Amino acid sequence: MKFIYILLFLCINLVAxxxxxxxxxxxxxxxxxxxxxxxxxYKLAAKSxxxxxxxxxxxxxxxxxNNTVVQILENSKETNDKHLWESYESAKPYNLDEILGIKxxxxxxxxxxxxxxxxxEGRRKFExxxxxxxxxxxxxxxxxxxxxxxxxxxxxxxxxTAKSSTPFRETNYRPELFITFPTKIPFLQSLDYLRFGxxxxxxxxxxxxxxxxxxxxxxxxxxxxNLLIIPxxxxxxxxxxxxxDNPDIEKYIGKADVTLAYPYKRHMLTATIRNxxxxxxxxxxxxxxxxxxxxxxxxxxxxxxxxxxYGESLIDYDRRRDKIGIGFxxxx
Length: 332
Description:
alpha+beta; Outer membrane phospholipase (ompla), Chain C; 2 domains; 4 helices
């Protein structure tokens, strides 16, 4: 019996070595920036793993109990396929790395230099703006629709670094719970997913500076050639305690937005347009333009952001702001 397990180990080890060589070559190409070549070798490695598993199974079936061979091969197949698929995914441009199942959600960035076009009483025009945004999938395929239920958390801060005491003038917190349904609609192949969520947003302050609201939203993601389009619409929920720090927030921040992203070589151009959908003199909203440009090979990109309109932060939801900032963004 010991001889059988030794032989099983040697055969499977030979298979793994062949796959590993293909995987190593793919990884080297990825480091050199040859994404297309890396993807080809990842595919070859995956195919080789599947083919070799079938070969080993047929050769060893005669000398070992069938259930033992199948169990070992299935375990090996699941491990290798998962590893290769994750490597393949990580080789895609703009894919976000996962750490302990935690993914990047919205863009993570820091703008050390963010400058307002106009003076605001009690503030310096120059400040630092940064955002941290993560998500964690928590349940899979509960409704047998291949859906994922996830928890997301985003935090954006505005830091008055030009002041002597360098205070944080505002921080907005955005926890959310959402469910994502991947789609495969023959007549609408550009649609990637549908998402529905519950989003809370507040600034953690009290008294007259307190701002908060809750909303449910629906979102879709489309790919049209190289253009990414994400429309989103929401409905505000009444506050459970009946209090309302900002009853007119929808008049300024709006009821829907759409995000556009267009990659060009190693650059990315983005735009987010938000509006209250009132097509008269009360129409208000905002637009944000972004430019991500390569900065080395570490996944850190240079980032320029321009904002104009209402709702840059909760404390300023009803005041128009025009700002531009430059810094860095983490995309993988």
